[in-house]
Each structure stands twice: as structure tokens, then as C-alpha cells.
């Protein structure tokens, strides 16, 4: 039921008290990384969530390599990083490779925060943050944890998702992308981000999620429509007719 799915996703957002809704710094107030940051993660991981929240609050874009349980990409992660563990951040701009959510968050703040720190406004012990993030994952009953595609795909150009980490609707799309093992670029557009103007120009309005699939090509709003499209094109369902841009509402 769509309403139950939406409700549990709203609960996850409430549990995290809206983390990832507003930026602590915006992209126009610091130099952009020349190369996209890369994150190996899966949507249901509570530690990965903590890193994605910081990335959104720093208004940083990044490339997601999903490695949900059963993903054939897990062997790639073990080879690149040395062990099978998430989250794993790869920053080619500084030749940095990092595990551990807290270490990654410290690095992102120091490197791209321009003196501003993303995170809780008040000091929160790490174990409390971990517990709280775990409760948010529990609210989704395992969505985004296990890969439903076990075969390696033909090379695809990564999809692009205009995203806000705190959005319950974006979460539904990210879960589907994780379960379908689809690589995608996150264009973070928290409230106040200057990239919202780009989204408005491209899609016709400021609304997330907004998916761009350059392989078809398709551009669309509305989480349920996006998930249905991803399932039909990249899941077990039959391909649907190609959707044109701005077909969301």
C-alpha cells in the first residue's frame, strides 16, 4: 500500500529529526571538487545514512556505487578498499580512501566545509547517533538492504537523482536504486541550495525526487512513478513505454 510505504518513510525522517533537509554551507560558498566524490553504500545501512546526511548538508554531489547484500559489486569494493565494509568514501581529488562513518564525516567537514561543520546542532555522542540512525533503518523494515539483481549489468551511464536526504519520497527512490544495483549520481538540493535553480530550469519546478536516465533518455518527477519506471526498465518487469521529460504530475 502506497500510503503505508509513505508513512514509514516519513517516520524514518522524523526519527532523524530532519537531518539532511537544510545545508550548513551551499555550493556557491566553497570551491566544488573537480571530480565527483564516490560513495560505496546501500540505502538501508544506518552508518551510510550518517555520511549521506553530511554530504547533503554540505551541498556536495557524489556518485553512488550500491553494494547491497548480494550485489556483484561487493567484490569491487573489497578489491579497492581492502575489506568488505560500508560506507566507503573515495575522493580522487585528494587521493583519499576512507571507511568508518564518523571518520568520513570528519574528513568531509574538514575538506569541504569551509569552516562550517555539518551534523547535529548540539553535541550528540556517536553511539546515540548510531542508535538513532538504526531506528530510522528499522522503520523501513529492511528496504534497500538486499540486492535483487545478482548478474553484472552491461555498462550503463549512471542515472542522476536530484535529491534531498531528508525527503521521505527521495528515500523510496534511493531504496529502489540500491535494490536494483544501479549506479547513480546524487545532485543534492537541500532547501537553500543554489542548485535548485538548475532543477527548476531543467524540470520546470523545484520538487524532489527528480530522476534523469540518460540511457533512454527519460526525466521525471514523482517517487511512485520513478520507482515503477526503474522496476519496469531494470527490474524483473517488462519495459514500459519511454516516458518523456516533465511527465511527473
Textual characterization of the structure:
By secondary structure, the chain is α+β, with helices and mostly antiparallel strands. It is built from eight helices and eight strands; from the N terminus they run H-E-H-E-H-E-E-H-H-E-H-E-H-E-E-H. It has helices at residues 2-15, 46-57, 74-81, 101-112, 126-139, 168-179, 195-203, 223-234, and strands spanning 37-41, 62-66, 88-91, 96-99, 159-163, 184-188, 210-213, 218-221. The chain has an eight-stranded mixed beta sheet, sandwiched between helices.
Keywords:
about 250 residues; alpha+beta; eight-stranded mixed β-sheet; 8 helices; disordered C terminus
- The number of E-state strands comes to 8
Estimated radius of gyration: 17 Å
**Strand residues, percent:** 5-15%
Overall morphology: globular
**Individual helix count:** 8
Derived from helix and strand composition plus strand pairing, the structural class reads: alpha+beta
- Major sheet details: 8 strands, mixed
**What distance separates the N and C termini?**
20 Å
The SSE string, one letter per element, is: HEHEHEEHHEHEHEEH
Strand order of the largest sheet: 4-3-1-2-6-5-7-8
The percentage helix is 25-40%
Low-confidence stretches: 238-249
Q: Please, what is the average pLDDT?
A: 92
Amino acid at each position: 500500500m502506497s500510503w503505508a510505504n509513505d508513512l514509514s518513510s516519513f517516520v524514518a525522517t522524523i526519527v532523524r529529526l530532519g537531518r539532511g533537509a537544510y545545508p550548513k554551507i551551499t555550493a556557491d560558498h566553497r570551491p566544488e571538487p573537480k571530480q565527483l566524490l564516490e560513495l560505496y553504500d546501500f540505502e538501508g545501512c544506518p552508518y551510510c545514512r550518517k555520511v549521506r546526511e553530511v554530504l547533503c548538508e554540505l551541498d556536495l554531489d557524489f556518485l553512488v556505487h550500491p553494494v547491497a547484500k548480494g550485489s556483484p559489486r561487493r567484490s569491487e569494493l573489497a578489491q579497492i578498499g581492502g575489506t568488505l565494509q560500508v560506507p566507503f568514501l573515495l575522493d580522487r581529488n585528494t587521493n583519499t580512501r576512507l571507511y568508518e562513518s564518523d571518520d568520513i564525516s570528519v574528513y568531509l567537514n574538514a575538506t569541504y566545509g569551509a569552516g562550517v561543520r555539518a551534523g547535529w546542532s548540539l553535541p550528540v555522542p556517536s553511539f546515540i547517533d548510531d542508535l538513532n540512525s538504526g531506528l530510522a533503518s528499522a522503520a523501513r523494515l529492511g528496504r534497500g538492504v538486499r540486492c535483487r539483481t545478482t548478474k553484472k549489468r552491461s555498462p550503463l551511464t549512471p542515472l542522476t537523482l536530484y535529491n534531498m536526504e531528508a525527503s521521505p519520497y527521495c528515500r523510496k527512490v534511493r531504496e529502489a536504486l540500491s535494490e536494483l544495483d544501479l549506479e547513480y549520481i546524487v545532485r543534492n538540493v537541500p532547501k537553500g541550495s543554489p542548485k535548485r535553480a538548475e532543477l527548476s530550469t531543467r524540470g520546470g519546478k523545484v520538487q524532489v525526487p527528480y530522476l534523469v536516465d540518460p540511457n533512454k533518455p527519460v526525466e521525471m518527477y514523482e517517487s511512485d512513478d520513478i520507482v515503477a519506471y526503474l522496476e519496469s526498465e531494470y527490474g524483473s518487469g517488462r519495459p514500459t513505454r519511454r516516458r518523456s521529460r516533465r511527465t511527473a504530475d
